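Lab meeting, action items carried over

1. Structure of the two-component assembly. Owner: GW. Status: complete.
Input record:
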Amino acid sequence: MSSEQERFVTDTSQVGSDTRDARIGASGTDNRFNSKLREAFGSSPFILTKFDRFMEWVRGSSMFMLQFGIACCSIEMMHTYAVKHDLDRFGAGVPRASPRQADVIIVPGTIVSKFAPRMKRVYDQMPEPKFVVGMGSCTISGGPFQEGYNVVKGAEEVIPVDIHVPGCPPRPEALIYGVAKLQERIANGESSPVTVKPYELEQFSDLDQDEVVDKLADEIDEDDLVMRYNWADSP
Amino acid sequence: MSLEESTPDTVDTGVTTAEEIEALLGDLVLDRDDHLNAPGFVVRPDQVQDTLFRLRDEAGFDHLSCVTAQEYEDRYESIYHLKKYDDPTDEVSVVVPTPTDNPVSESAEPVYRTAEWHEREAYDLVGIDYDDHPDLRRILLPETWQGHPLSRDYDQDRPQVVPLREHANPLQEDHEGDEDDTMFLNIGPHHPATHGVLHLKTVLDGEQVVDVESDIGYLHRCEEQICQQGTYRYQIMPYPDRWDYISAGLLNEWAYARVAEDLADIEVPEYAQVIRTMGAELCRIAAHMLAVGTFALDVYGDFTAIFMYAVRDREKVQNILEELTGQRLMFNYFRLGGVVWDLPEPREDFFEMIRDFLDDLPEALEEYHDMISANEILQVRTVDTGVLPPEVAKSYGATGPVARGSGVDYDLRRDDPYGYYDELDWNVAVEDGCDNYSRLLVRLREVEESAKIIEQCVDLLEDWPEDERTIQSNVPRTIRPDDDTEIYRAVEGAKGELGIYVRADGTEKPARFKIRSPCFSNLQTLPEMSNGEYIPDLIASLGSLDIVLGEVDR
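Predicted assembly:
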């Protein structure tokens, strides 16, 4: 036991005090709080780092996920949260039901025309900084449903995505890997790539006049928010 | 089965053969258009209600299982697939052609209330108008959608504009009328209790529900279109997994396998049928486990114990299914004429894995009963709430645990046997409490019955002679059923009667592929169960219906 503890103490000759002994348990006191972190800090109880760097590390280590189920992938997402896989072990928390309390949104499923404006609205309601994990093939390209008349060809058409997890559906292990990758990115201070989103929520009166808009003028108020799909331009 | 009692019934339901039905309908019948599963009678668009009333009241066809709409080159057509709850092998199709330039047909809603949503869907996707329909609006697509996507001249590339109207603060206009004191409340489409992307427009008076309207279509993934683009042999089979995605994949695959095998006249080896039966029942256990877990989650808000227990048991089932099929959720294991591969080697280990699971199951179920069904809190919340009388359930076409929880003894595994079910010893779980509690009990009892079936299948498979293990019959690479053959076939999915209608046109792809989803019909009963009740009971009722939006919206 004691030999194992000694491996953590890197530089005993330079710094030595009762405090240190008590902290790292060299004197055989309670060693339950020893951790990788302590190993990284060495024997000094002080660390020097940039505040930003510290915040990024904190942010990546405590992520609140949004409880957000769309389709098949949400079943595997539930399994990821629950026993056996237990995403909480990785500091990615218990799902929150309200977008106002969440940092990360996992988009688990096919996005169709009727749902995309709602998903955009949920995303907008999350406080900054926020991150998006696209789960499954549908959020990459529309997946097996890409040819559907009603299917948005990937989540990136509507919101920016930090991490794509491929699969139909991805296994829980794959999702955990994706979340771990996201944590790594956040800890390194990398932000999501800037993407051009073809589909935006905008006021109906701001749309360019064309045949469809003219036809719908009676049905939709001028200040209603709408999302316009140009299917012909979709990949 | 006393003979005295059955005599008066036969007066009502004695009309079974095609000739008897034709005689009953008399001059309402214009023509015959028989389907492979049932005689079909062509009637005039303005005599739909007369025909259906006569079939329901005088011939006992009390179950409108599906309404299929389609467009031919020269006409539109609505097909009403009728069955009897007492004997689902008694089927009849009522075919209603309407001209292309004026597709107006009489609504069946006054006869069968389930027709309301089915006809809205037909209007939405194909574009047939229904006279006398109470509320003919789009149901799956946004209301501002242009065109009808399953009609022949639909241009998929035309731009569409979809409004976001529900964003307005509901408290600004929270009164339905000037006089009454009601509040409008949106539940969903993103809400933990709606089991996916369902939107409930609820009108509340205090804490009581005055009216609830389900707004569906947030997961309408064009399953029918995609199946119509795929070839029978291989390209359609992966999609059924994604209709009811709560691990019920094999049950759904069986729906397609059954309809395509009957259409193309393909035999399935007995050995494959036993494997199918075993796999399907494993799926049913997994699906019911999640239903029970999320129901407890809805009623208690209990994310810790019961939900986790349910997931724990699901993981075991999923491990077995992964051994068998190679996938955890989207199995793609059935093929036309059998299954894709044999049981995993070494077989003894696989059987032992299943037996271990079955041995632990009674204890696990005992735990569920301790924590859920025997729990006083849950009983207070669920007994006598969400009441669905059997007659109402039938008129909405409810099937599966929802119907069986209302005392409707209807299970296609027994009543319209397929696979290996009729050779095995098991019971249909029926409860006549008609409330949320009964539906929960039915699911828990069905898990036991499924376990019985699996055990018998394992026994059979263990002793199966090695040289008779044929997993697939000889099926041609390309399947081209005869032109203009039509068939509707259903199996007992996890949620109820999962049916598929296919019309072949002589090519290797179906000309029309229509999915009859049990959840679609079951969800229609929600206002009947919730109006006038408290809002927590609405949530409990919704949980007890156990809907999957992938199947509701397709």
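2. GW to write a short summary for the group page. Key points so far: The first helix of chain B runs from residue 3 to 13. Residues 223-553 of chain B form a domain with the Cytochrome-c3 Hydrogenase; chain B fold (CATH 1.10.645.10).
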